[in-house]
Amino acid sequence: MDISEAFQDDRGAIMGLYSVFLALGQILGAIVGGVAAEHFAFDRILVATFVLMLVALPPLVQLRLFEHRFSAAHGRSQPAQVGEV
């Protein structure tokens, strides 16, 4: 099941936001990686990666909890597969 299925009228806006945040993540990741490589040498890029992962983890947990509540409310225990109606 897709979260945007609950908001059919706003699906285009949701996908637009997804695209914007994906691009922002790529840009910010490149900037942070470049700064880490320049100031801390290449060895510290791994540390920067873990820091970014820790920043991304809480929103992912919240999203998973929301999906779980959303799926349970609609009588599904698992997200729908591609092509499933």
Nutshell version of this structure?
By secondary structure, the protein is mostly helical. It contains 2 helices and no strands.
Outline the structure in words:
The structure is a single chain. By secondary structure, the chain is mainly alpha-helical. It has one domain (3-73). The protein is 69% helix and 0% strand. The protein has helices at residues 11-40, 45-73. Helix 1 (11-40) runs antiparallel to helix 2 (45-73). The longest helix has 30 residues, at 11-40. The chain is elongated. The N and C termini lie close together (9 Å).
List keywords for this structure.
85 residues; 69% helix; 2 helices; elongated; mainly alpha
Secondary structure: number of strands: 0
Number of structural units classed as domains: 1
Strand content: under 5%
Spans of at least 5 consecutive residues whose pLDDT stays below 50 are none
Could you report the average pLDDT, rounded to the nearest whole number?
76
Question: What is the 3D shape?
Answer: elongated
For the biggest sheet, the summary is: none
Number of helices: 2
From the helix content, strand content and strand pairing, which structural class follows? Answer: mainly alpha
Architecture blueprint of SSEs:
Blueprint: H1 11-40, H2 45-73
Helix pairs in contact: 1-2
